[in-house]
């Protein structure tokens, strides 16, 4: 299996002199192609920060990050942007939809930016809208749709380019259990069929049980790591709950 | 006092907001003070003896300036308060009493106004000297302006601005009472609906502008429409219909066109087009009023400056048309004529290019047979022979040569105005000289004269034979005509000759008309350019401010785009495109409006304004382009920070 992402001694410090806060403390991490990794941990543990750093949106204070064989520390701005657009797909915790665009336009934005032919764009948007059940709201503006619909729109935008690495920050946070399941199933399907590599931050043990490997983060460090291996989802779910309990209660 | 402390802390925290507001106030005060100083400046009043006329022009212009300055300050004030509504709401939420907040806003605004007034007058004092020097130059004087601050100007400025400041302060005080808390918090929110555009209203925009243009381009004297609506009312109709059309244009037509471009997916879904187009669409409706104001201001500026510059530009030509000879007078006394001749010869500054004594006849004629619309029907025309005409035309470098048979005649009318002047060609005129009565027929009209208009009035050229026949019955009047070098700098010789000749010698000179024209048109162009610059600076600033606010609310959007992989070059391109649209639209519309206005004007004045107007538009665009690049740069900086 090819290594998609490799992080070595990654650190992230916020703030200036006198008022520094270490959000990430020495993270080592390797992700192979086709993995579905979950990241869990209490609020403020540094999950979003880790995701941002790995996704080149934010720069680490120290350490190396190699994605798809490319060292991304010290890459030119334009290279980074192209890299993000072509290789990565994000589903953000706070959606990050453009309120000036309709749902449809939001979804197809990455394709338009990459100048994909119109007919191809149409095909892909249709397919994805069906997958996430948002055909009805395609011509609405983000202002007029619910949180869950926004999240599904964001997810559609993230995967429409068939990225080699999908990064999701609590993609099910605002979804009811039915749409959460359908989103998770679509992610799983992408993972199984397209061999897309997925990294997902979540608080929810049920969502995490769709992953194949889970990292538990605490105070900016990787604390525990568990693998699904041959377990069923039910068994894995149980195991996640056990770990969470052992890590110090339900305050996650 | 705690309230005072809060106010001080506010100012420090929202520095840029306050800075922009105070800066625009200072700008207005400097402009106004400078202008009023000019009005009271001793060097100018002393140099221009016709102070009555000058001061009335200044007064009219300062009224325009006051109105404009008041609007501009009002605009910056509401821009400023709009950005602070949230903060005000927060105080209210924290339990500060409304009355206290109102007082805070009042003091704050008043204090800033006083500071701005102080700085403005200080800066204006320095600037006014600079402007006085320029004004003297364009009016054709080389006086060194003395530096003196006029107390009158200071008092005038203080009164006007204390009034404006007081009004805005009271408005600030009342703000808190006029809004509910929730409104204050939502003040910053953008319009959330997708703009609608009806095809019908889009067409209406074009119709309104079309009607305005069509009316403006009518021949005023003959137009049926003008007569029906009324000569005085039509200009008003034109202005209103164009303004309304412009507003609808921005409010609907542009929205409609943008939506149309959105329909073309192949272009819209390509690269950053999708971002810039939808961003524009989202904003344009909220911007319609500003864009309309800017278009109208631009059009007014261009028209006023273009027209006044044309006046200045054409001054020399007009003086030449009225005075083909540098100096001309009626010779009544040979002795005086010789004295004048000696004086001209003595003057070292000037060489005589030619000197002619021209034999003419002054004959009173009844012009009622010419369908004369203007003036008295009995007029005194000057008659010269074909020979004289050809000789003078040759000396003055004209190509026309006449040869007239029998009772055929040609008329020389330098003040000819199509439609108002008589229709000469083909008409006849009866001459009664003593016992002789002759009917002459005009075969040719020349729209210039070879004699100076003030000395000779309208001149009739008749055949040499007819001339000698009439000559026997009436006294010849000799006219002296000189062409000298350096004719536009002939103040001294002019004064000398004027002192020698009696009034009824009808002395006329190129210099007299030229310098008078320079004085009045110089003043007009100065004021035109001054106001033009002020308007330009203001329109530029309005767009600049507006764009910067939008940049701030776009920050989040560009941040999202950055996250999903839009690089900085694309961001810059998208901004450049978007801002270009906002800048180019009103400029384009303004130029179109002013082009129509100036075309109408040039028809009315029957002069060609093309070159001066192109120069004005060129300069205007240049300054505008600088604003554009400045805005793009700042926008980009804000968004990518
Ligand atoms: N830009 C920033 N400046 C300063 N501190 C920051 C910044 N971003 C995050 N932090 C701090 O870093 C820590 C980690 O934040 P992060 O957003 O990664 O938490 P998280 O694990 O995603 O939490 P949650 O589950 O609530 O989303 C937090 O204590 C946060 O306050
Ligand atoms: Mg987070």
TrEMBL record, chain A:
Q: Which CDD domains match?
A: ABC_MJ0796_LolCDE_FtsE (cd03255)
Q: InterPro entries per the record?
A: AAA+_ATPase, ABC_transporter-like_ATP-bd, MacB-like_ATP-bd, P-loop_NTPase
Q: Which Pfam families match?
A: ABC_tran
Gene Ontology cellular component terms for the protein in this record: membrane protein complex
| PROSITE patterns membership | ABC_TRANSPORTER_2
Instruction: Please verify whether the record's keywords include GTP-binding.
Output: no
ABC transporter domain location is 5-244
Q: Which domain of life does this protein belong to?
A: Bacteria
SMART domains assigned to the protein according to its UniProt record, in alphabetical order: AAA (SM00382)
* Annotated keywords: ATP-binding, Nucleotide-binding, Transport
Q: Name one GO molecular function term.
A: transmembrane transporter activity
UniProt record similarity statement: Belongs to the ABC transporter superfamily.
Q: Which PANTHER family match?
A: ALPHA-D-RIBOSE 1-METHYLPHOSPHONATE 5-TRIPHOSPHATE SYNTHASE SUBUNIT PHNL, LIPOPROTEIN-RELEASING SYSTEM ATP-BINDING PROTEIN LOLD
Q: What is this protein called?
A: ABC transporter ATP-binding protein
Q: Which organism is it from?
A: Ornithinibacillus bavariensis
From TrEMBL, chain B:
> What InterPro entries does this protein map onto?
ABC-4_Integral_Memb_Prot, ABC3_permease_C, ABC_permease_BceB-typ
Q: Which parts of the sequence belong to the ABC3 transporter permease C-terminal domain?
A: 60-178, 530-639
Subcellular localization, as worded in the UniProt entry: Cell membrane
GO biological process entries: transmembrane transport
State the source organism's domain of life: Bacteria
Q: Which positions, given as ranges, span the membrane?
A: 18-38, 58-76, 104-127, 147-176, 197-216, 236-258, 291-312, 523-545, 579-603, 609-630
Cellular component annotations (GO), alphabetically ordered = plasma membrane
Its topology with respect to the membrane?
A: Multi-pass membrane protein
Per UniProt, which keywords does this protein have?
A: Cell membrane, Membrane, Transmembrane, Transmembrane helix, Transport
Family according to the record: Belongs to the ABC-4 integral membrane protein family.
- Protein name per UniProt: ABC transporter permease
Q: Record the organism.
A: Ornithinibacillus bavariensis
Q: From which lineage does this chain's organism come?
A: Bacteria, Bacillati, Bacillota, Bacilli, Bacillales
């Amino acid at each position: 299996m090819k290594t998609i992402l490799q992080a070595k001694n990654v650190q992230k410090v916020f703030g200036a002199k006198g008022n520094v806060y270490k959000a990430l403390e020495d993270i080592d991490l390797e992700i192979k192609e086709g993995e579905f990794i979950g990241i869990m941990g209490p609020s403020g543990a540094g999950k979003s920060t880790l995701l941002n750093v790995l996704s080149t949106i934010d720069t680490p204070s120290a350490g190396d990050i190699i994605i798809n064989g490319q060292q991304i520390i010290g890459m030119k701005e334009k290279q980074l942007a192209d890299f993000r657009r072509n290789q990565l797909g994000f589903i953000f915790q706070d959606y990050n939809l453009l309120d000036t665009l309709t749902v449809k336009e939001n979804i197809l934005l990455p394709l338009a930016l990459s100048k994909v032919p119109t007919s191809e764009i149409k095909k892909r948007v249709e397919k994805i809208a069906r997958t996430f059940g948002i055909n009805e709201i395609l011509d609405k503006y983000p202002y007029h749709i619910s949180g869950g619909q926004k999240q599904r729109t964001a997810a559609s935008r993230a995967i429409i380019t068939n990225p080699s690495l999908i990064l999701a920050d609590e993609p099910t946070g605002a979804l009811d259990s039915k749409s959460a399941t359908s989103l998770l199933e679509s992610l799983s399907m992408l993972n199984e069929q397209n061999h897309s590599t997925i990294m997902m931050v979540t608080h929810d043990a049920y969502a995490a049980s769709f992953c194949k490997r889970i990292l538990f983060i605490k105070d900016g460090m990787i604390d525990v790591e568990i693998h699904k291996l041959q377990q069923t989802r039910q068994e894995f779910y149980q195991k996640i709950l056990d770990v969470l309990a052992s890590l110090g209660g339900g305050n996650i | 006092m705690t309230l005072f402390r809060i106010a001080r802390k506010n100012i420090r925290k929202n520095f840029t907001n306050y800075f922009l507001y105070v800066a625009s106030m200072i700008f207005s005060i400097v402009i106004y003070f400078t202008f009023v100083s000019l009005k009271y400046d001793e060097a100018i009043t002393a140099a221009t003896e016709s102070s009555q006329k000058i001061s009335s022009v200044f007064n009219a212009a300062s009224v325009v300036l006051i109105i404009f300055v008041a609007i501009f300050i009002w605009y910056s004030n509401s821009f400023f308060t709009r950005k602070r509504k949230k903060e005000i709401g927060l105080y209210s939420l924290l339990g500060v009493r409304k009355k206290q907040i109102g007082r805070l806003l009042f003091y704050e605004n008043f204090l800033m106004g006083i500071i701005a007034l102080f700085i403005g007058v200080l800066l204006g004092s320095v600037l006014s000297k600079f402007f006085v020097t320029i004004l003297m130059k364009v009016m054709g004087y080389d006086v060194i302006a003395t530096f003196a601050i006029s107390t009158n100007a200071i008092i005038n400025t203080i009164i006007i601005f204390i009034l404006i400041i007081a009004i805005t302060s009271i408005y600030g005080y009342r703000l808190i009472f006029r809004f509910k808390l929730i409104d204050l918090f939502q003040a910053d929110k953008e319009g959330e609906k997708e703009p609608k555009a009806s095809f019908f209203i889009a067409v209406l925009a074009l119709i309104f502008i079309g009607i305005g243009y069509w009316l403006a381009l009518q021949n005023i004297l003959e137009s049926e429409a003008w007569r029906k609506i009324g000569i005085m009312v039509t200009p008003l109709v034109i202005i209103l219909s164009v303004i309304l059309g412009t507003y609808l244009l921005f409010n609907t037509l542009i929205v409609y066109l943008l939506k149309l471009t959105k329909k073309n997916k192949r272009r819209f879904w390509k690269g950053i087009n999708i971002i810039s187009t939808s961003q524009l669409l989202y904003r344009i409706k909220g911007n319609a009023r500003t864009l309309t104001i800017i278009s109208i201001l631009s059009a007014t500026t261009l028209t006023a400056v273009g027209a006044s510059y044309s006046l200045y530009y054409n001054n020399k030509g007009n003086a030449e048309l009225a005075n083909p000879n540098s100096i001309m007078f009626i010779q009544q006394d040979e002795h005086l004529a010789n004295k004048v001749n000696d004086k001209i010869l003595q003057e070292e500054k000037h060489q005589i290019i030619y000197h002619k004594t021209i034999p003419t006849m002054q004959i009173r004629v009844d012009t009622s047979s010419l369908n004369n619309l203007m003036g008295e029907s009995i007029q005194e025309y000057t008659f010269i022979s074909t020979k004289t005409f050809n000789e003078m035309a040759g000396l003055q470098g004209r190509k026309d040569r006449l040869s007239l048979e029998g009772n055929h005649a040609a008329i020389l009318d330098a003040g000819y105005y199509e439609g108002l002047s008589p229709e000469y060609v083909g008409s006849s005129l009866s001459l009664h000289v003593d016992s002789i009565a002759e009917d002459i027929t005009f075969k040719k009209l020349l729209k210039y004269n070879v004699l100076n208009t003030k000395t000779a009035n309208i001149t009739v050229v008749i055949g040499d034979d007819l001339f000698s026949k009439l000559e026997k019955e009436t006294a010849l009047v000799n006219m002296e005509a000189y062409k000298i070098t350096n004719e536009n700098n002939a103040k001294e010789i002019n004064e000398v000759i004027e002192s020698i000749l009696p009034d009824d010698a009808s002395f006329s000179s190129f210099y007299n008309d030229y310098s008078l024209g320079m004085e009045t048109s110089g003043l007009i162009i100065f004021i035109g350019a001054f106001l033009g610059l002020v308007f330009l600076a203001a329109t530029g600033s309005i767009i600049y401010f507006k764009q910067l606010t939008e940049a701030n609310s776009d920050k989040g959007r560009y941040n999202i785009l950055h996250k999903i992989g839009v690089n900085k070059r694309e961001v810059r391109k998208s901004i450049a495109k978007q801002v270009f649209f906002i800048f180019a639209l009103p400029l384009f519309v303004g130029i179109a409006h002013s082009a129509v206005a100036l075309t109408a004007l040039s028809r009315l004045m029957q002069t060609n304004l093309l070159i001066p107007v192109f120069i004005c538009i060129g300069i205007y665009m240049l300054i505008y382009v600088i604003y554009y690049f400045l805005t793009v740069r700042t926008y980009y900086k804000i968004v990518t920070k």
